[in-house]
From TrEMBL:
Catalyzes the phosphorylation of the beta-carboxyl group of aspartic acid with ATP to yield 4-phospho-L-aspartate, which is involved in the branched biosynthetic pathway leading to the biosynthesis of amino acids lysine, threonine, isoleucine and methionine. Belongs to the aspartokinase family. It is an enzyme of class 2 (transferase). InterPro entries: AceGlu_kinase-like_sf (IPR036393), ACT-like_dom_sf (IPR045865), ACT_Aspartokinase (IPR054352), ACT_dom (IPR002912), AKii-LysC-BS (IPR041740), Asp/Glu/Uridylate_kinase (IPR001048), Asp_kin_monofn (IPR005260), Asp_kinase (IPR001341). It holds the Pfam family ACT_9. It comes from Streptomyces lavendulae subsp. lavendulae. This is Aspartokinase. GO terms for cellular component: cytosol.
Amino acid sequence: MGLVVQKYGGSSVADAEGIKRVAKRIVDAKKNGHQVVVVVSAMGDTTDELIDLAEQVSPMPAGREFDMLLTAGERISMALLAMAIKNLGHEAQSFTGSQAGVITDSVHNKARIIDVTPGRIRTALDEGNIAIVAGFQGVSADSKDITTLGRGGSDTTAVALAAALDAEVCEIYTDVDGVFTADPRVVKKARKIDWIASEDMLELAASGSKVLLHRCVEYARRYNIPIHVRSSFSGLPGTWVSNENPQGDAQVEHAIISGVAHDVSEAKITVVGVPDKPGEAAAIFRAIADAEINIDMIVQNVSAASTGLTDISFTLPKTEGHKAIDALEKAKGQIGFDSLRYDDQIGKISLVGAGMKTNPGVTASFFQALSDAGVNIELISTSEIRISVVTRQDDVNDAVRAVHTAFGLDSDSDEAVVYGGTGR
Ligand code: ADP
Ligand code: ASP
Ligand code: MG
């Protein structure tokens, strides 16, 4: 029996009962002969509540102190979980990200893991302990300050530890039975996927399926760590995410469409009246990049012949909206645009599937389904295995359901159970 890393999300440890339930599961894995490393998130919506609190004392909390605050959430759950395990008669020790050797760059609020040195975890395991690690946090190699990995970052902590400790599997325990063909909170007839290729999961995660974080899937793919996403509330097997199909490609056919993802966490900025000449887009996106903001879709309109001016729209996380507007206003003189428009009432719907590469009808059917549902499209972007559109936020749920049905993804039964969480 080898080493397993188990990650429990906030909804799995939302209250004392949840912590005790999870402690039993962990002890069972230990009793089955595994060495167990647990990564735990903050209880329930603690992180959101801490953010709300910070916003009451400062309009745009950020940086070092914000990270200090947010990491407190995971410290609470890790200590309580260790106590609950000890109460069941087993040895457990909790560790902050820094103590567990999660080394990051120094970008506060969305740091990247650059190294994992889990010496203390190894020692704790060798001494017979269950090791509990606070997810979503690390320590900067340069500044020695505490950092966080961005929302949902505990998934990345889990996979990074699994890679560093050469675990046989990384189990992600959450409040649904695995990865479904759409968010079960939106599509009751979503179907559980038994196995999904890392490539497809990467696109779903990047398109907003928050059941797994994009960076976590990226990490798992690079280090070839199989992920098992499953519910901490049921004993059912979940979804395996791996580079190779565990049963061999011949037995399980690769689905044409893997699923429908949606995302309402983005906003759209339109830079109005940009001179249509070389260097303008470069100047706009240099200003954005210098503010360390990641953008998603970009669209440039055809310029009006009479004015020689064009508009450039792009999407970005809502949380970066203010920063982006500030950065562009500062660079206005150099870029030379008329005005900025900010719209945070947008939503994105994406259809993902490796089969798209060879099925030319997919795009047309996708647009037809949206049109039949009366959904207006504002932006479009595609990759080899994904089509995404931006719509009004209010249309997103209807659009997801319409596309899910149009592509024959609805299951015959209502198997998509949501066991907990608030969907926040
Ligand atoms: P945790 O607290 O365990 O990290 P998250 O809320 O981050 O949980 O992720 C689980 C949630 O992801 C589910 O409750 C579900 O609403 C959402 N979700 C979105 N897309 C999917 C999908 N394709 N399959 C399963 N869950 C999804
Ligand atoms: N607690 C953090 C969050 O809510 C990290 C996580 O849950 O993965 O984003
Ligand atoms: Mg999560």
